[in-house]
Amino acid sequence: MTSPLEQKKIKIAGPSVVTANRTWDGIVVYRTAAMSWSADLSEAAIVRNSDEAKALLAESVADDVGAIGPYIAPVQVGADGKIEPGNLREQIRRTGVTIGQPVQV
Amino acid sequence: MYAYDEIDRTLVNERVSEFRDQVKRRLSGELTEDEFKILRLQNGVYLQLHAYMFRVAIPYGTLASNQLRALAHVARKYDRGYGHFTTRQNIQFNWIKLAELPDALADLAEVGIHAMQTSGNNMRNVTSDQWAGVAPGEIEDPRIWSELIRQHTTLHPEFSFLPRKFKIAITASDHDRAAIKIHDIGLRLIKNEKGETGFEVLVGGGLGRTPFIAKTIKHFVHGRDILSYIEAILRVYNQYGRRDNIYKARIKILVHELGIEKFSREVEEEWQHIRNSSLQIDDEVIEDIRSRFAYPSYEKLPHMPDQLRQAAADPDFEAWRKNSVAPHKVQGYSIVTISLKPIGAPPGDATAEQMDALADLADKYSFGEIRVGHEQNLALPHVAQRDLPALWKALDKLGLATPNVNLITDIIACPGLDYCSLANARSIPIAQELTRRFANHELANLIGRLHINISGCINACGHHHVGHIGILGVEKNGEEVYQITIGGRADESAALGNLIGPGVKFDEVADVVEDIVEAYLALRERPEELFMDTVKRLGVEPFKERVYATR
Ligand code: HEM
Ligand code: SF4
């Protein structure tokens, strides 16, 4: 995965969301259409072109107290409207490490 | 152990309250992330994929049992019950909440632990040989000098805003366990003809995107001049270093671009201006630091006591002893390496329970002292030989007696894409699969000393360039691909590995490593010829042929 932290130009190839980490505890969150953050990907606002993406990102960046390091990440939207992460990195951010943790939580 | 003085304690405590205030202002929105980032980095706080990551310093790899218990406490109370020991004598916690960080720092401060110099573009914590002070044949305890440099550089304005991070490592033994040749400055403690203590100074080592092995810039710098000499290097670096380009900002690039001759001339010139200044170190200063390193009152013990002879009948004990137990400078004692590389587990992780239990074992068998090495293993530095069998049994119960130190399953790996926001590919699952493939102890023993190093991106935190077998994760068309090198090494004969061919997919990595190992077993001239020697003798070709013939 090319780290999205190196994301310079905003160009999206398909449905995308804005994701970040919540400021106070660091957990993964997604920007919602209601201009807030949710830990649940299914509540994320979906953008489908670069202008929408730019607008959603700008609005997310402005909410710096809520979450940090926002960026645009690809998703797949199923026929039933179900949202899935668009790459391995986002899959791992959503479901956690792919390895067993030394202490089960 | 080193006893901190009042200045250090005050400094650490002040840092905690300062950070508490900064976090409060960040959470209220008074500070933006941009303003806060540099502050959190000065306190070891990064942002990772799933959470914040908290990096805590273990200066020159020495820990007291109460400090290890404090780390266990942080793992349990503020994190998910475990920590990850890194290649730079740090421990990282992966799931910490920003709001709770000031409390975690305060709890650590009570036992003199902090996170200063663990991140940011400053002088990072000075690392050293994890066997410092106990290795036979060592010239002098290198931690005395590590501590001197630590005191001089902590919060020193000139070293706090460098073009880029800056790392120093010190060794005082012939065999370099501190990997000094891959540090910005490497110091090898030596004596001159007059018997005076000083250093061979190496500069410009580093891995990452543009790897370099450090070069010797001066063959002998007297101990009393070492601070002025380091300062001269830093001044030349500060003057020329590329602040404009993050990829070119490390000193290794400067040394490469200027050439070692010109670089050393510049340093020499700068040094002549400052060497007779207040930077010259009085003997009393060194003596004062020396006196703060307490050594245990060792007993007079026989070599090879009865307990050890009897235990030798147990093949499991012997397998462990041969790999994990090393000679100590004091007769009747040993240095015991604790493998944090159990088969199938992430390299370098330890649970809070293991840390607590190990702290108890250190109290019982190692004068309350634990060491942390760059191979992501721990060590108990002062174990009486008569106690080895009992210690082994206790470690085994804790899952800490895997007999694989320095063998193929003693893998160094960075967190990779499972944790790290900069990663291109996963490292830990590759390490896990490899340990399963080579889980058979007879096989691993037959192969002998072989270090595998894995990094999840070009930053090279897993030191893949200097692994005997190095594995680098990259990304190609959205897929994880791994480039494999052989022939690297990190010790006194440090060398960068050579690529064996095109990258391979995630599922193929373990097969490729097996092929390389099979080729080695077939090609070696005799069982004692180590992997790296066979590679040196034959080059990459025969290994490449073997790996790619059927792919
Ligand atoms: C998980 C969060 C981590 C982040 C964000 C991170 C980031 C980085 C970056 C950006 C570099 C390259 C610096 C440069 O070349 O200027 C680097 C180098 C390094 N990291 Fe990490 N790292 C992380 C974890 C680790 C861990 C877990 C270890 C030990 C296992 C480690 C050990 C090192 C070492 C030894 C280097 C120096 C390599 C060299 O000589 O250039 N890091 N790290
Ligand atoms: S090498 Fe890359 S992936 Fe691994 S820890 Fe360092 S920055 Fe992260």
How would you sum up this structure in a few lines?
Chain A has 105 residues and is of the alpha+beta class. Chain A has two helices and five strands. The longest helix of chain A is centred in the middle third of the chain and has 13 residues, at 50-62.
Describe this structure in words.
The complex is a heterodimer of chains A (105) and B (551). Chain A is of the alpha+beta class. Helix content of chain A is 20%, strand content 26%. Chain A has one domain (13-94). In chain A, strand 4 (67-77) and strand 5 form a beta hairpin. The longest helix of chain A is centred in the middle third of the chain and has 13 residues, at 50-62. Chain B has 551 residues and is α+β, with helices and mostly antiparallel strands. Chain B has 4 domains: 6-109, Sulfite Reductase Hemoprotein, domain 2 (Alpha-Beta Complex); 134-291, Sulfite Reductase Hemoprotein, domain 1, CATH 3.30.413; 306-397, Sulfite Reductase Hemoprotein, domain 2 (Alpha-Beta Complex), CATH 3.90.480.20; 412-548, Sulfite Reductase Hemoprotein, domain 1 (2-Layer Sandwich). Chain B is built from 19 helices and 21 strands. In chain B, strands 16, 17, 18, 19, 20 and 21 form a 6-stranded mixed sheet that branches. In chain B, a hairpin with a 5-residue loop joins strand 8 (185-191) and strand 9 (197-203). The longest helix of chain B is centred in the first third of the chain and has 22 residues, at 6-27. The termini of chain B are far apart. The interface between A and B is medium-sized, with 28 and 42 residues. The structure holds protoporphyrin IX containing FE and iron/sulfur cluster.
Give the topology, please.
The complex is a heterodimer of chains A (105) and B (551).
Chain A lengths: L15 E7 L5 E4 L5 E2 L11 H13 L4 E11 L5 E3 L2 H8 L10
Antiparallel strand pairs in A: 1-2, 1-4, 2-3, 4-5
Chain B lengths: L5 H22 L5 H9 L3 E3 L4 E6 L4 E3 H14 L3 E4 L4 E7 L4 H9 L17 E2 L13 H12 L3 H4 L7 E4 L13 E7 L5 E7 L11 E8 L3 H15 L10 H8 L1 H15 L8 H10 L13 H6 L3 H10 E3 L5 E6 L10 E3 H14 L3 E4 L5 E7 L3 H10 L14 E2 L14 H10 L3 H7 L4 E4 L13 E8 L2 E8 L11 E2 L4 E2 L3 H15 L7 H8 L2 H8 L3
Parallel strand pairs in B: 6-7, 7-8, 16-17, 17-18
Antiparallel strand pairs in B: 1-2, 2-5, 3-14, 4-5, 4-13, 8-9, 9-10, 11-12, 12-15, 14-15, 18-19, 19-20, 19-21
Bound molecules: protoporphyrin IX containing FE and iron/sulfur cluster.
The site of protoporphyrin IX containing FE has 22 residues of chain B, from loops.
